[in-house]
Amino acid sequence: MASPEARMGALVLKKTKLGEADVIVHLMAEDGSAVRAVAKGARKPKNANSATLELFNQVQVTIIPGRSLGIAKDARLMERADGLRADPARFAAASVVAEAADAAIQPDLPADRLFAMTCAAISCASDAPEDALPLLVAAYAFKQTALLGMRPSFSSCAICGERVEERGGQVRFSFADGGAVCRACAVATETASADTRAVSLSDALVRSTFADIVRIQPQSAAWDAAELAHSWLRHHLGARMRSFASFKAICGCSHVQAGV
Ligand SMILES: [Zn+2]
């Protein structure tokens, strides 16, 4: 890290143990870039960093440049995510958002509006009804990639722009080409079968705010949309998204396979 000592607002996305007492924190800075730093002593219960640099908290923190990783110090809590830690399903949903965010961001590469969007998703997860959590996760996945320049196409063909027609409740979907594709274009590209209701729901989600999403009625296609979003993230971020399996297991869904 060549930059001088910096004080910044940040969101805590991930923590990994380092030695006996320290933690490496993965942060999203307010400008949407990735910052990784060592929080000295953060595994000791009485250390000031241990409570402040908790997952999903928004903090103000000073990063002192180091040879590879910086050092995080003087962390001050701005927004605490206690509601998430008390509820396994909400915590698991926020973990999917955080893993997707951590996989998408890069050091020294700002991403306008990503910080605000990610904080909004995590804040809404903290008091969302459980039925809304798969919708929130799907919405974050599609909105995040849209913001980074990979906006999925749901109602018109991602290749030619023609209207996409369903057959037997399914449409052809190409992750590489950017969304649903028409029958003619599907011949020439690799596609999967996607549930029409999940595709329509995903279209609605990407156009809605998180605050609106947590208020909408339970949707039968919610988990199909979440599965579609999960496959979308795996393809576009190259992330393993292990948090998604935990999310499904903890939410105890009786979801139907989306066929993708
Ligand atoms: Zn087409």
Distance between the termini: 41 Å
- What class would the helix/strand composition place it in? alpha+beta
CATH fold-type name of the largest domain: de novo design (two linked rop proteins)
Low-pLDDT windows of residues: 254-260
Structural write-up:
The chain has two domains: 6-80, OB fold (Dihydrolipoamide Acetyltransferase, E2P) (Beta Barrel), CATH 2.40.50; 84-251, de novo design (two linked rop proteins). The chain is elongated. It has 260 residues and is an alpha+beta fold. Strand 6 and strand 7 form a beta hairpin. It contains ten helices and eight strands. Strands 1-2-3-5-4 form a five-stranded mixed barrel. The protein has a three-stranded antiparallel sheet with strand order 7-6-8. The longest helix has 17 residues, at 88-104. The protein starts with 5 loop residues before the first strand and ends in a 9-residue tail after the last helix. The structure holds zinc ion.
Q: What are its keywords?
A:
260 residues, 10 helices, alpha+beta, disordered C terminus, 2 domains, 38% helix, binds zinc ion, OB fold (Dihydrolipoamide Acetyltransferase, E2P)
